[in-house]
């Protein structure tokens, strides 16, 4: 006695499948967004040890961040739907052409070997009959190809939307309209080679006992410019907090208003001190 499938069970199964696919797509979008965002600051995402659940929240900003983002997302997926239909139509035309040509060739082989009894003729006939049987599975392969095409187009669109939004947000946060906080980091000087002395900001700390490997110019460009200075409106100097993660504090100097499109900020990674430190955050630069 056969049991009829429960409609509620089928609906629940489909709903669970959709949720699984949606979760995978959101995680993919969140990972690409953060990869492109931190790549702009020359940081490797895998070294930051960000919580996995946070990647599911980021896509809300990618697709629903503001009115223009919603319109851009709608336009992108509308174009994607058209591209999917065009691709499936093209695949159908090509597959039908190939199948027709194959059937014609196999029919001719079978007709030519119908009354021949040689070993070669028998093998060709057997191969042709086997080919006819294999052509029956074209419909199954076509449905599989259709699913691959749909998933591929959706992933491509999600990739580029997340990448563009990640770079756009990183460029915004690196400039004068940043949403990242202005920072004041106060830490003991024993293990800190840069920074201004609180009691004498005009004196550079001693570099005795420190070593350097790499570009000395990067250090010289930083030394003496560790504090904020907004007196020059064309090239203000503002330090912002990028991230605190894994025992490291990432700071960067915001790009000036006249920064070139390909200019990237230099990031300063500071290991948290065992003796403690103070971080003061502010949405704006102090007026003093």
Automatic annotation (TrEMBL):
The keyword Membrane applies. Keywords: Membrane, Transmembrane, Transmembrane helix. It comes from the Bacteria. The chain crosses the membrane at residues 12-32, 75-95, 144-162. This is Uncharacterized protein. It comes from Nostoc punctiforme (strain ATCC 29133 / PCC 73102).
């Amino acid at each position: 006695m056969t049991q009829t499938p429960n409609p509620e069970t089928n609906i629940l199964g489909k709903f669970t499948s959709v949720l699984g696919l949606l979760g995978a797509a959101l995680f993919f979008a969140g990972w690409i967004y953060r990869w492109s965002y931190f790549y702009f600051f020359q940081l490797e995402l895998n070294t930051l040890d960000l919580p996995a659940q946070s990647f599911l929240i980021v896509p809300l900003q990618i697709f629903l961040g503001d009115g223009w983002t919603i319109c851009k997302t709608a336009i992108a997926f509308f174009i994607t739907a058209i591209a999917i239909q065009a691709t499936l139509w093209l695949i159908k035309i090509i597959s039908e052409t190939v199948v027709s040509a194959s059937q014609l060739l196999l029919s001719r082989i079978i007709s030519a070997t119908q009354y021949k009894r040689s070993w070669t003729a028998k093998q060709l006939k057997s191969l042709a009959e086997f080919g006819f049987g294999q052509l029956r599975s074209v419909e199954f392969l076509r449905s599989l190809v259709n699913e691959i095409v749909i998933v591929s187009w959706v992933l491509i669109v999600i990739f580029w939307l997340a990448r563009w939004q990640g770079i756009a947000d990183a460029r915004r946060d690196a400039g004068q309209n940043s949403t990242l906080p202005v920072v004041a980091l106060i830490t003991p000087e024993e293990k800190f080679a840069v920074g201004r002395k609180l009691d004498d900001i005009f004196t550079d700390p001693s570099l005795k006992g420190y070593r350097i490997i790499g570009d000395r110019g990067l250090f010289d460009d930083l030394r003496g410019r560790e504090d904020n200075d907004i007196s020059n409106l064309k090239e203000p100097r503002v330090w912002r907090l990028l991230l605190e993660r894994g025992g490291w504090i990432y700071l960067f100097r915001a790009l000036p208003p006249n920064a070139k499109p390909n200019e990237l900020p230099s990031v300063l990674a500071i290991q948290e001190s065992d003796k403690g430190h103070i971080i003061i955050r502010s949405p704006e630069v102090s007026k003093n």
